[in-house]
Fold each of these.
Amino acid sequence: MRALLIAWMLLVTPAWAVQPDEILSDTVLEERARDLSKGLRCLVCRNESIDESNASLARDLRILLRERLVAGDSDQEAVDFIVERYGEYVLLNPPASGSTWLLWGAGPLMLLLAAGLGYGYLRSRSAAPAPDQTPLSPEEQARLDDILKR
């Protein structure tokens, strides 16, 4: 029973990241805030959204996002405001534009480079001359037999 309780606590921990005092009374605004915060990266936890993170900076970002929505910003305006302050790194899924083209293209470029190097290596191995396959002379065979008997 205790193991089940611990497992349950580990599974629902991200749901506890948003504190009760952060939740908006307007359920529509709260739903918008939760949806938007799932796409924003916690700057402390790296690949965790601010909706899941318990870090104090994530809490500050959640509060800032909710303040912008209460002030009347659209979803895009609220996200743009946060991106303007913290950079594109705050987006969990940044758009492929400007400086992020290198990041988006690095994976496929490395794959192509590795495939090309592997192909070149295999081609050079197949083009290499076969090793000399001449049999041992009777003297060499006798010497080898003598060494192996020791």
Amino acid sequence: MSSLLEDILNYNQAFVSEKLYEPFMTTQFPNKKLVILTCMDTRLKQLLPRAINLQKGDAIIIKNAGAVISHPFGSIMRSIIVAIYELGAQEVLVIGHHNCGMAKLEANSVLDKAKLRGIDQDTLEVLRYSGVNIDAWLKGFTEVEDSVKHSVDIVKNHPLLPSNIPIHGLIIDPKTGKLDTVINGYQEILA
């Protein structure tokens, strides 16, 4: 019986030897000068690029749970800053989605599952004692619109972000690909 990793590595060996990578070749610089923060939801993997007409190399896409920026100096914001200054992105899209797993997520649900998988209560207490607000860190959001606005606000108000970069907030329907605008970044710049 082979493992998932063995299957992946065997496929990869054939992928490389048969040069199946050639159709994916592009540069590290986004053609549309766009950086996107979106959710890691598997339904968006192919739907989102097709719904917004992205082709190979058009955008830098950053994914995390819920398209949430939880800290202005965390890895998500660092990636956006690098995309702008080092890779030439000139616009930012924050794209949340309806029916997101982060909606109404409560820390207790995650922590209970962690305990079932072997994380002991002492570890959780050490985290809390160390100043980690694990309940806030694992908390989801109530309304996707509010979450998108929050993430856009963090990007827009970051001290390292140029004032002329439009920061857009959108919500996609993971069934149909329909987009709804929450924040039009062009209007925000003109205001």
